[in-house]
Request: fold
Amino acid sequence: MHKNLSVRPFLAAIAGVALGAAALIAGFSTGRPAIATAPCVAHTPSSEELTFLGLLQSWRDGSIPGSYPLAQSAPLNAAAMGYAQFLANTPGAGGHGADGAPGYPWATRAMQCGYPSNLAAGGEGLAVVESSTAVSVSAQQALNIMTAENGGGVWVPSNVGLPVKCVGVGKATSANGKKVAWVTLIFATNGACPQQVTGGTGGSPTASGTASTSTATNTPTKTPSPTPSPTPSPTPSALGVTVNIFAGWNLVVLPAGPVERVLYRAEGCYRAVYQFQDGEWRRYSPFVPAYANNLQTLNGGAFWIEGAAANCGPVGL
Reply:
């Protein structure tokens, strides 16, 4: 985990269980040199992929409080299929950044395919299986792999400042049938899920069908786009940590300690802070009553901070 990151997507991870004699490709670096970001592949989900989306919807409805009905987004379908094909056709490739995409790679790929940068908060689920013989991974098996890791991409909360209700999926199999890759992206939106693909190759440029027949009705206020202000000199720090807090969502590393003390010098720069603890997402916000906060003590590590419109930039804690 890197310090001082200020990109919008939600933290993702892959999870896995072994399938037969197959070897699961986990989220580690393979040591290959960085290469170009996987291309967009405009994609209309197959019947098997639609089955997966239905299973994903049912799982989120039972596992994610306040889950929204998921609707397909063409840019997310294109990004998911592009990366699925890359993983399936690249022996040994696994994890979120195997294609060398910079920053938060799942968001980089989504934005490359046309997903608006000011909405790029979400997660990526991967189920990648490689074997010495032909292997198959069903829709249910793929979901089982993705959900096995609490805090992974499919566990993104129902609201990260905007409702999380857009989805994309892609499944690809290598030519020799020995590697299968499932990729799903779940992102937030402030309205209808984006449908315009840019940079797509092959397939259909628009999504068809939805993961659920119902439609979310509430449209919250749009989260400000994270446009950094000129970087000021860091404030002298009492805790020895400086973090970037721009308007919107920021992934940062914070020291352990009582949340109010750790963030004392960041007053006015943030609206809420989230961390995954003990199997659930916990939140602290100075704008809600004390009883509504279930994050009291930070245990160190990675956190999501929703920056306020003050767009403070570097803040010394």
